[in-house]
Amino acid sequence: MPRDVLLRKLVYLRRLLHDLRAFAGASQAEIEAQHYAVERIIELLVGVASDLLFHILAERGMQPCSYREAFKLAGQNGLLSIELADRLQLAAGMRNILVHMYEDIDYAIVHQSIGDLLSDFADFIAEAEQWGGR
Q1: Sequential pLDDT tens for the chain (134 residues)
Q2: 40 burial class (0-12, 13-18, 19+ CB within 10 angstroms)?
Q3: 77-103 b/e with 16+ CB inside 10 Å = b?
Q4: Which of 35, 50, 98, 113 is buried most deeply by CB count within 10 Å?
């Protein structure tokens, strides 16, 4: 992946984190009132991070079939720490529930997850910066 593409996507991830940070102190009721914004930010965080991984993994001859698998393979292949890859697989699962509505959305879980999402995607950015455009 060209370094400029990597850097552009990392800048976008930082912007998404900034937007999500606005909800860090929000109540569950406020999250529910603004649920479209919160859901979209989560969807984009997972999608953009996964897109980066799809490119990097493809360069290594791997083609994950899902967002969750992209994070798993990234951990198994040293692109991400195993612990972070495991946590991001959970974020991918949340994204799937939000987008595909496999089950009812539990806004208490979304509300409680915001701090973890902020931390985990900040960690993703920090680890991705080390890839150096490989």
Answers
A1: 888 899 999 999 999 999 999 999 999 999 999 999 999 999 999 999 999 999 999 999 999 999 999 999 999 999 999 999 999 999 999 998 898 876 789 999 999 999 999 999 999 999 999 986 44
A2: middle
A3: eebbeeebbebbbebbebbbbbeeeee
A4: 50
**Alpha carbon of 5 to those of 28, 56, 69, 74: distances in Å?**
36, 11, 22, 18
Place of tokens 């800048």: 11
Residues 128, 6 contacting (CB under 8 angstroms): yes
Instruction: Report d(CA 78, CA 60) in Å as an integer.
Output: 12
Query: Whole-angstrom Cα distance, residue 93 to residue 90?
Result: 5
Backbone phi, psi, residue 84, to 5°: -65, -40
Q: Which positions ≥6 away from 82 have C-beta within 8 Å?
A: 75, 76
Number of H helices, E strands in the chain: 6, 0
> Structure tokens of 118?
């902020």
CATH 1.20.120.580 fits 3-131, yes or no: yes
